[in-house]
TrEMBL record, chains A, B:
The gene is aroB. Zn(2+) binds at E188, H251, H268. It is an enzyme of class 4 (lyase). InterPro entries: Dehydroquinate_synthase (IPR050071), DHQ_synth_AroB (IPR016037), DHQ_synth_fam (IPR030963), DHQS/DOIS_N (IPR030960), DHQS_C (IPR056179). The lineage of its organism: Bacteria, Pseudomonadati, Pseudomonadota, Betaproteobacteria, Burkholderiales. It catalyses: 7-phospho-2-dehydro-3-deoxy-D-arabino-heptonate = 3-dehydroquinate + phosphate. Binds 1 divalent metal cation per subunit. Can use either Co(2+) or Zn(2+). This is 3-dehydroquinate synthase.
Amino acid sequence: MQLPDVVRIPLPEGRDYEIRIGAGLLGQSASWAGLPRASAAVIVTNETVAPLYAERLREQLAAVYARVDVVALPDGESFKDWPTLNRVFDHLLQEALDRKTVLFALGGGVIGDMTGFAAATYMRGVPFVQVPTTLLAQVDSSVGGKTAINHPLGKNMLGAFYQPVRVLADLDTLDTLPDRELRAGLAEIIKYGPIADAAFLDWIEDNLAGLLSRDKALLAYAVRRSCEIKADVVGQDEREQGLRAILNFGHTIGHAIEAGLGYGEWLHGEAVACGMVLAADLSCRLGFVPQAFVERLRSLIQRAGLPVQPPQLGVERCLQLMRVDKKAEAGDIRFVVIEGVGCAGLRPVPDDLIAAVLRDHGAG
Amino acid sequence: MQLPDVVRIPLPEGRDYEIRIGAGLLGQSASWAGLPRASAAVIVTNETVAPLYAERLREQLAAVYARVDVVALPDGESFKDWPTLNRVFDHLLQEALDRKTVLFALGGGVIGDMTGFAAATYMRGVPFVQVPTTLLAQVDSSVGGKTAINHPLGKNMLGAFYQPVRVLADLDTLDTLPDRELRAGLAEIIKYGPIADAAFLDWIEDNLAGLLSRDKALLAYAVRRSCEIKADVVGQDEREQGLRAILNFGHTIGHAIEAGLGYGEWLHGEAVACGMVLAADLSCRLGFVPQAFVERLRSLIQRAGLPVQPPQLGVERCLQLMRVDKKAEAGDIRFVVIEGVGCAGLRPVPDDLIAAVLRDHGAG
């Protein structure tokens, strides 16, 4: 048995926790050692992931908890809403499960965000464990304690900062991931280069083909390095008072695309990929990076099989959607701009400049 | 202008805050000094309180915030639910209000709990101020950061620990409080005696008539002493890992009565009053306090015009409702028992003993 890679998120008040990364972790009893004691555990998953991994996880947890339930929600971003979340609450309350019950989020970003929000709010907080089964969740959404559901008027608008007690990224679960979702996960991996680590961007460019063909050693490194960068940022700014916002590079336009098309039309990673191209162009027009950097990022994203051109939503509609972005302030839309490869910052950007970029990239 | 009484809640990470208590605070500009800056404030209130105080508060806040909105929800415990809460989110998002927006909870416990939960979850957290206008909210629910909504299967089952940035208890707002609600507030004041302060229990007994006739000096002392006790407990145990549970004296049976009759049938304070009588009897049967203490508490509660006999819900139904209580663990119902006047603890109590008490008091 190979020992997992471990990345630690440093947090105050005894809330720090481990991200364990490795192949086969789901089947190893060591994965569950040291979790909070409780009389019951509930695996929250979706109808796609449940037939693949829920039984394996249930068997493992049955050695730790007297009772293990499985709640399988419908799959997809369009179900990241209150009525679907309420199915988790209904189950917990119908079964009279107490406030020591441990929730396990088995799935991708939607399941992780929803289970985390359920854990944050059920009886004002129960412990939860992230078991991400998509690349995107393993490198980004399962780490750092952002939990949320969507509102018809905006993505992730209702949520909480609430940390898991552990993250367990079993690389073997990526074997069953559709290609489209693998590529969407690569978008968030690519993100870490421009915002924090120029050498990692070089590495991704050099190893893209291997990552796309699911070379497990390469994936292991990409997941670990991504988690290290995220852990470093979250450890410095858990509640996004400042620095943490850089993790949202590409997300301002990305969220507008997702909301504008209807959740689930484009995958989150696809929307972020396209958003990064436009945000890089904005950074260039603001004088921070040369045009060559925009082209370099566009080329990498294109090679990863991800979209570089936004859908034709109309410029005004895009701006309107961006004004409800969580980073907006007093009506100003704020963007994560690249200020040099490996260095990013959050800045208000005038509407007319955003409109020009949207138009020039075909969103108008 | 008389300076307000100030009670401070000590909390880590810069989250400590002031409870200001006094007559006329709503009309004093000093009340708003030092609150977080923002471009907008939203007053969340209900349709009963809005015509009485919303305009006065709006005018005050207009000197501080460029924009001040009012959202008035329907009044009552039966509206402490997700669809009603969502009206607040709809407003915030339709108006594209950003994550610095400050929410003001103007009303009783239901408005305070709901506004607090909205503040805890809108964009993962915005600041909020409690402006309690009922005695119950001033002495209990507005203080300490417990926020929640009800679920059809249990009271306050969905919520968060999320602290306000200030509590402003204007005693003048009690002038418009119906007698029934004044008495319900007295129930939570009485509570602080048995659990924490024998001398305060004596004081309440001596001054009950004056409190019932709304003597402002007596009310001011009762509110301040209640807040001091609560601040002390919450400062030691914000997230109810242990000690804080004593604040739930009378609430295990109280919550069952509220849920069993349908929310709003009995006021929360009425249900708690009755719950305290039964919990005192339990404490007596467990050998902690003499029968004389049970009679003493029953007599005080009766003099306050509060119910001492539970509705006939049936013993089994009561037990079932108590098993989903947040303090229950692994199926055991746990009670706050009085271990001596001014001293309480949380203990599991066998079902048959609870059943006997319920039966003997007429719930069966």
